[in-house]
Amino acid sequence: SFTDPAVSMDLLRAVLQPSINEEIRGVFNKYMEFFQKAATNVRDNVGEEVDPEQLIQETCRSCLEQAKLLFSDGKKVVPRLPHEQAAPKRARQMDEELNRHGSPIPKKRKGRPPGQSLSNDRGISGMAAWKLKVSEPVKRDGPKWDPSRLTETTTFVLGSRANKALGMGGTRGRLYIKHPHLFKYAADPQDKHWLAEQQHMRATGGKMAYLLIEEDIRDLAASDDYR
After folding, report:
1. pLDDT at 121
2. Whole-angstrom distance, CA of residue 177 vs CA of residue 186
3. Nucleus: present as a keyword of the record (predicted)?
């Protein structure tokens, strides 16, 4: 129904964008350990006022900017197309709709049972939950994030243990990719020190550690995908 080539291509891009974003996140996960170690070293050398997560995000954005040169026809600066200056309303609406409901492209399973790790997921660091922020902020909303759920009797489980319990032990962070709606608490250095002292986990150095609500993991374990 469109004769403008730019509009037609942008509509196709809007359909494919969620799938493309997911694959881009997978690429960044392969290098996240390097970024994390470097950012932690910067904080140790400069001071606590340095935010490692912000440094990592800025580095990833810089990588994406440099990657544009792959499609720049040899020019140093990638000019924006006219339709990108003011995206068609229908394309923007499609972007919003697909972001809410996910990509219509079915994911390839290649015969693996639910929960089994993908070969290209190896090496994902404990910082994997951050990957959602490459192109969009983590949405801390929904029923799983209702503050009333947390009481003095609430029990928690380490993300690494939950990952293993659901059959994804060899793929750190896979749980956060598949279930971004889950409540998770990022442990700070004092938390990790206490957890290590109580022998709940090994000393992780600069790696991230997350705590999830035990009830959520039990619900997942009893679901059809994991039963």
Report:
1. 41
2. 15
3. yes
